[in-house]
Write a structure and sequence with these properties.
With 295 residues, chain A is an all-alpha fold. Chain A has 13 helices and no strands. Chain A is flat, with a radius of gyration of 24 Å. The longest helix of chain C has 19 residues, at 459-477. The chains are: A mainly alpha (295), B mainly alpha (319), C alpha+beta (485).
Chain lengths: 295, 319, 485
Amino acid sequence: MQTSTTYVRGSAPHKRSWTAYVRYRALNIIGLTLLALASVIVLAPFVWTFATSLRLPTESFTLPPQWLPTNPDWTNYNRVFEEIDFLRMILNSAIVAGAVVLGQLITASLAGYAFARLEFPGREVLFWLIMATMMIPLQATIIPVFVLISRMGLNDTLASLILPSLPTAFGTFLMRQYFMGVPKDFEEAALIDGSGQLGIFGRIYLPLVAPGLAVLAVLTFNGHWNEFFRPLIFLLSRDNFTIPLGLNVLKGYMMTGSVSIVLAGVAMSLVPVVAVYFIGQRYLIEGIMMGGVKG
Amino acid sequence: MSAETAIAPNKKTSRNPISLLTENTLAGLRRRRALIGYLFLAPTIVGIIVFTAGPILVSFGLSFFKWDVFSPPSFLGTAHYSRLIADPRVLLGFRNTFLLVVLAITMQIAVGLGLALAIQQRMPTWMRYYFRTAFFLPFLMSGAATGIVIGYMLHKEFGPVNYYLTLIGLPQVPWLNSPNLVLITVAIAFVWQNMGFTLILFIGGLNNISKEVLEAADVDGARGWNRFWHVILPMVSPTLLFAAVTGVIGGLQIFDHPYVMTRGGPGDASRTAVMVMYESAFKNMEIGYGSAIAVFLFVIILLVTAGQFSLSKRWVFYQ
Amino acid sequence: MTQPTRSAFSRRDFLRISGAGAFTLAVAACGAPAQPSAPAAGGEAAAPAAETVLLRIQVNPDEESPVFELFKQNHPNVEAEFISVTGIDHEEVAAKMLAMLAAGEQMDLGFAATEATQLYAGKGLALALDDYVKANESDMKEYFADVHPSLNEAMMWEGSLYQLSRDFNAANMYYNTAAFEQAGFGHPDSGWTKEEFYEIAKAIASQSGSQKVYGYAWINRLWGSWMPWIFVNGGNLLTEERAPGGEWLWETFYADDPAAEGRGGGWRWLAPQANNSANVEALDFMVQLFNEGITPAVELGGGETLQGFFTSGTLAMTPAGGFWSGGLANAGMANGAFDVQLFPNWKNQRHQFGTGALFIFAASKNLDTAWEYYKFGATREAMEANGIFNPVTITTPSRRSMCNAERFANTGPEHWEVFYATLDDHPDTAPIPAPPISNPMTTLFTAYTARAMSLEMTPQQAMDGLQKELEDLYSREGAGMYKLE
């Protein structure tokens, strides 16, 4: 990440005076220490999850808490593969989350641009109607949605999770905010250049909202990777299960599964989504670097 | 505009709809932009009508019926609505939800913005990379896994947090077992998981502040609190609005965390509006009543969001 | 009152109430398939043998498919589609079930435990098996002779039998053998008392050591929470009564079994009695254990971690049934590290249990095939193959002959006989109170339990509050649960 040095934007130590510099350094060190402390606290549950997944269940819940996986034992991981078709479920989740991300990037950037930058009759009303659909909890509409899915012959397919998720009120709102944040001068410049509307959208605006697209992609992937309730209702056969359903299977009949095995499953199911974040983060930073406002 | 003209082969008839669009006038330009607006919106609008708005209207219709799925629905009129405004568990659910949203969303925005600013300070690149990742990581965990792990961390007798508290001589805190504390605990779990998202939003927002503005502020000698209040905050206000609006919309529908961690307890101390709705519909099999609670919640979220937007005109600043 | 007529919920009903133009259009555009109407029970024309019959079974495929494979050997024309329900709670299972019924999905067999047995029976969702059982008397004799009458009594509603009990769990007392030894206690007598229990729990909890060990812990839910204490103290949450009827079952299949005497046509829980003195006294005891540091704060969530605490040796005792033998083995607890005894005697030693089995959907279009499969599933051969009993026992088999030394030889507990002795030695043992409205009842029960355990209310106040809310629930939803004259 060579480029991110330019990302530093804090109040740089202007050579005002020696005392000001000392004060600045002291605050800097205190700030970094506090951040480091906060990050340790925030990461502790992950460390525990991972350490526990590497221990025999009988040693998992003892006090004082053990943070290091002494005598790592991988049997919990083997058990995950024995009890569920883990790779298949990972693949299903990846298909669903990947397809939804691609679809939402398209629908949300188009709709967000229209709301932010185009004028047409009914714009405000349509925006509010779309916003309003975010305000009904999923649980309230699951039965009508399932009836619809079933009528379309889509139940027990991955498409039943993908298709209804392609339009996104949240993504539309997110992208609208990003498009609105782009200064108007760009559009005026583009119009003078003679670019058409599609050209303005595709060549001028879309690159400028790359951070927004990255945020939406990471968020959507994560949301659908971890989605539990819709798959629970829509999917019927094990072959189509996504990974959160698989983790639930690990809990076992009447909770007779072992928490350590569940945690091994949790740890493994985190890997792809963390990978997506790392990829997304690169685009996120590059997007910011390319960002609309050149210094 | 070659694309538009190319699709107009019958240009001879002067007042047909296509020529209205292709007219080389300001009105023609406006019409073209409107058409593009509708085209851009079409996938979203059609999808939302079919998969979201339609089912919402069905649910709204169901709220006037008594229906347990097993037998045909019977019309009740507005009886569910008069029942819910007198149902102490529903009212408590809404009260808990409001408290949770105020606690959690305030904390989430404050922590997210605070961390974003702290990460802006001078530090090596790898360190910035580490912090950004560390604070975002919890967002990648599922609500159910968060519930199990945080629930264990905060277990009164067996959890590590209380273990360390007793080591430094403090009493065991009944994080999840005290009706007075449980909402704060659930809010902490919620913020732990969601602050990473707010953080990323604010990092983007802060990076959108132009250098000129910051340098101008430096020249003016704006530092510390002044710099934050008069320069940074107005410049990130669109992000703030977004975080607040989506946070409140999502927060008012909070379900996973209290459900996994407490099942609404102790007593009803952490039962939220959506939990009451879910239990009515799927545990008590009163789908119509659950729908009525959802409609009520919808109206409240709509009002709160509209309020946020109308207030936002006073404080949100677009560059 | 007559048997509620089962009316399949049709697409027309759904659309009629929807009143949503957009939704109607969307549905119409998708070309809805014709909605099958529910045939009356037993009215199915026998399918030609050559024709393939597809059974849709709502059950965990890992557990059920070995049974189906065996069935298929003699029924090659039958195929199965397993509808996997991963829901851990009743709400999750119910949400899926309700959605599928609303969509008019045809299902042939499903699973229900005591919590839902009377609900599905009372709503006309489950098929009464009476006619089939009577018609297959010779086949069924062996099954009933092997299953304790109290288990199948719990499968009845208003004189009819809806399920053949497959597995059950009574709340016995599991204990950590090392914790007992360390405090100088051995295996308790089967007739041990509440006072002896208290002495052991207190001794263990007051030991000083590097790590505090709690004497006793439980999860706040309906089955096995503090309900066992209510039962051994002679109480119950609801009034108990036996429905008339059921003689056909008892006289045909249990004529020689003294334990079947006095049984009726299923339980009726007609009124709440939450604040009766036995219940309040039991809750008082729970609060006392908590206040004395013998019991940790009661778990409010799904209780995923309690098993972890027990296997880690930080808990000495907890109420659980045969399902824990497999659960603890799954969690890596060695054979011999834990053992089990009957729940202690207070005023009596009456246990509470829950039992589960498949049921047949009354609207199934393949009733005869479904019954063939159902009957096969209850045979010893099929049950031995079932994934819930094989390779690891994750719930207690309802067949006495399957509760044997071999079954528990690898996992423990050493005193596995306790599981079935619960029923044999205490034939008054009964199911958890689970009327058709048991779901909302459970929400209230756990909410007020937590109020008392968090010391927000005294046990008396909590039970008074629970009684009041249960009375409201009964007056709103309780009418028509049973076929009262």
